């Protein structure tokens, strides 16, 4: 999920669900958890929400890749 969000300049929930092949409810729980940890940020965009990875999220993703 983080890799998909990183590759775009912000991604809405529908694109995340399709790109990652996730259930809507599960995706929302994951996104809320990641936002709470400061790994992603929520951006208001044209009446909706886009999700964007933060610097902390990029570091977290790089740490996961190095394992």
TrEMBL record:
Protein's name according to its UniProt entry: ArnR1-like winged helix-turn-helix domain-containing protein
Domain annotation ArnR1-like winged helix-turn-helix: ranges: 1-66
Organism: Acidiplasma cupricumulans
Classification via Pfam families: HTH_45
Cited InterPro entries: ArnR1-like_HTH, WH-like_DNA-bd_sf, WH_DNA-bd_sf
Taxonomic path: Archaea, Methanobacteriati, Thermoplasmatota, Thermoplasmata, Thermoplasmatales
